[in-house]
Amino acid sequence: MCCLVTIGVLIGPRLGIIIWWLLDMNRWSNAFSNFFFGLLGFIFLPWTTLAYVFVFPGGVTGFDWAFLALGFVFDILSYTGGARGRRR
């Protein structure tokens, strides 16, 4: 069961990025100046990338930073969660 959760955490946001990009390419092209930044986000920080595209249309101001921080925390936890489980 643990392996399924880990796979879901690592693949889930990337699958969400692909589906959202296919459905609304204009939003993604407005959020990122070139394809390279979106690709880097897809590879290294998928939760933060999703949060950024979600809050971008109105500009990143005020409470939007909390969404970005939460996405970053999810990214860090998804990468470090396996190490914590191995220590037990």
Taking all Cα atoms into account, the compactness measure Rg is: 14 Å
Low-confidence runs: none
Number of strands: 0
- Which overall shape is indicated by the principal axes computed on the Cα atoms? globular
For the record, the count of structural domains works out to: 1
Q: What's the end-to-end separation, in Å?
A: 16 Å
Approximately how much helix is present in the residues?
Answer: over 70%
SS content category: mainly alpha
Give helix and strand order, one letter per element, not per position. Answer: HHHHH
Q: Tell me what portion of residues adopts beta-strand conformation.
A: under 5%
Which sheet architecture does the biggest sheet show? none
- Would you tell me the overall average pLDDT? 88
* Helix count from the secondary structure assignment: 5
